[in-house]
Amino acid sequence: MIGGKQIINSFLMLALTGFVNAQNDLSAKRDTVHTLLWEVTGKNLVRPSYVFGTMHIMCAGDAQISQGLKKVIASCDEIFFEIDLSDINSMLNSLKYLRMNNETKLSDLLSPEDYEKVKAYFKKHVSMLPFGMLERFKPLLISSMIEEQGMGCKATDGMEMEIMKEANLSSKKINGLETVEFQAQLFDSIPYQRQAHDLVNYIDSIDEYTKTMDTLMKVYKEQDLDKIDKLSRAGDVTVSDYVDLLLNGRNRNWVTKMGQLMPTRSVLFAVGAAHLPGEFGVIELLRRNGYRVEPLRN
Is 270 in contact with 160 (CB distance < 8 Å)? Predict the structure, then answer.
């Protein structure tokens, strides 16, 4: 059986994300400030709410929470992630969504040559699961596992896990903007044939993708949302081709839900950092809806 962290990491790979740890000059122009922590006020809000850009999978030693974020966690009433990570039953239930529909296997989607290429990769790079089980997984999830292996970490963690630990100290309620079922449907909306083709391309160009991930990690640490936006759209072909499905459409749904939640409570929304910047990002959409969204030192 897959461990709980691997389940969470697999489903959370949809959004390329950002991470906390930089020195910022918040006197700079509002939209060029480097931070992943933002305060939402104005309109019909009695108390402020907050938006924070997370990184779902990173080296464990890099997953640290700033004093500013700790203060926000302590002061808010509730925390919303992309999905409710505190619901263990839902996490375990998500196992059934890892597989492709209709008993499809990777060998059904690839030429014999490409199938052997993927099989050889996992023979050389030992996985926690046998390839016979992996070949029934959605190919995007397999790509995510390869990405995690390529990070070169002794252990991986995620900002969501660290936020949950901090939230537990003050018994904060955890919730989700989406369900596991909804995120699984996103995977199924991208043709399996396309996912399998991208998996082979990933293996063929793994050194290039590793360099891109190293650059993303550097950008995460700098908390540069503009660069995160550019890299997430240009660096991953699947994301760039399905940007409305994976990013923009979800942002619109989240902002609608945020508008329903924030008038009655102070909420910390911790979502993948690639969802924050840009014309159709969460920050800009909130501003268009009449809220004041300002950077906080992180």
Answer: yes
